[in-house]
Amino acid sequence: MTGSDQPDRAVPDEVHTSDGGAQEPSLGEMQLAERSSLRRVEGLSTELADITEVEQRQLRLERVVLVGVWTEGTAAQAETSMAELAALAETAGSTVLEALIQRRDRPDASTYIGSGKAAELREVVMATGADTVICDGELSPAQLTSLEKIVQVKVVDRTALILDIFAQHATSREGKAQVSLAQMEYMLPRLRGWGESMSRQAGGRAGSNGGVGLRGPGETKIETDRRRIRSRMAKLRREIAHMKNARDVKRHRRHTTGVPSVAIVGYTNAGKSSILNALTGAGVLVQNALFATLDPTTRRTVLDDGREAVLTDTVGFVRHLPTQLVEAFRSTLEEVAGADLLMHVVDGSDEFPLEQIRAVNEVIADVLRGAGADAPPELLVVNKIDAADPVELTRLRGVLDGAHFVSAHTGEGIAELRAHLTERLPGPGVRVDVLVPYSRGDLVARIHAEGTVDSERHSAEGTAVGAEVPRALAAALAPYTMGGAQGG
Ligand SMILES: Nc1nc2c(ncn2[C@@H]2O[C@H](COP(=O)(O)OP(=O)(O)OP(=O)(O)O)[C@@H](O)[C@H]2O)c(=O)[nH]1
Ligand SMILES: [Mg+2]
């Protein structure tokens, strides 16, 4: 049993698996099929018909060679980074033919890998018949252009690759708008570079690029494109702000009705959606692919004590998430700021779980700073313990104090996790009448922040408060309970 034997109201029964996800959820399968059928469809609106050359380049990553510059860290870390780039490339739908790592103090200012290595790369491209080179970093527009000149196939960087995946995966209106905005922001300074190499390469590409090739990216064309992109970006920003308002209202309503909320965050592919499914029986898309989830999915569940809670599955994070994306997804990620609890899921079978934790924490801190919000309490959940190395797990148990160790697949630890959530989430609360000494002003502050105060009086001995507070806080307040004042 996974422990998720409470009925879930949001989904039909047949989706509810008791074996923790051995069966592929049907909703997920549908989404999966839909996704692959959409893979090669250019997603931008017709308004952008004139400038989709950039998009089309990004969507045609078919046979790729990866190249990385290894500037710091161990060889194992450099290899992990390349393996991740390969996974990203495959997620975007391409076949990885070859990967090269170059050891340098810093990326070459003009060609990223240096001209000697670039010539070597050209050889590899010719030998393998690759049509794209993907660099493991963010390249300047000039670097992209110079490297393209040498290798003579299109060159794409990690940022463009991630943006491409996001563009393929976004399903909600808000998600799509956010990705478009991020892509345009990325594109804007690169238009000239893309344009120049496009005109050189236009002959090699079929149909869809004909218009561009014929016209040529003259200075005027670029200027017009820029202006169009800018005004489209402004429009998108307005739309996104509007959608965010609607979501804020919904969230606020949830808050005022007192339904506690959990935001599930974590590195991409850590198993966030699997845990949501294991906890609630929801049929959220689970895929061994990066960024399977892009739109926050909220599911209701019934806690062990019969209360309701909502869990929100969020977009996964990755090292060096393009800044344009952090920016664009900020409003979505603000779900994080509004949650009562952050459930941070870590892949315990990953080679460097602590680095994943760090990368995720950086993005969260960034988002919260932007939202001007305090971090909600965090619960660390180490997933995939069925697949993890036992020695590594022992080490993790040592360093990750208070973490829960679970397997969404076998269901191990899931019941305990549910019990912990029940315990930890603010509930309708416990009635307390306490006299808190002035030395514990922190507790009074917490009562105000976490509970509902209905009486407060200052006396010589301290602050007398009558309030309804979450169970955990009630426990902390137990020593200050006023004699005989119980029961209300
Ligand atoms: N062995 C093992 N694999 C798991 C477990 N939980 C999830 N997985 C696998 O890990 C992969 C990613 O799972 P998801 O739940 O889609 O991960 P996610 O964090 O939602 O990923 P994104 O939405 O892509 O960021 C899938 O192939 C799952 O089957 C687990 O407990 N054990
Ligand atoms: Mg997911």
From TrEMBL:
GTPase that associates with the 50S ribosomal subunit and may have a role during protein synthesis or ribosome biogenesis. The keyword Cytoplasm applies. Belongs to the TRAFAC class OBG-HflX-like GTPase superfamily. HflX GTPase family. Residues 204-216 have a biased composition (Gly residues). The gene is hflX. PROSITE patterns: G_HFLX. Transmembrane segments: none annotated. It comes from Tomitella cavernea. Residues 1-17 have a biased composition (Basic and acidic residues). This is GTPase HflX. The lineage of its organism: Bacteria, Bacillati, Actinomycetota, Actinomycetes, Mycobacteriales. Residues 1-34, 199-219 are annotated as: Disordered. Residues 260-429 form the Hflx-type G domain. The keyword Cell inner membrane does not apply.
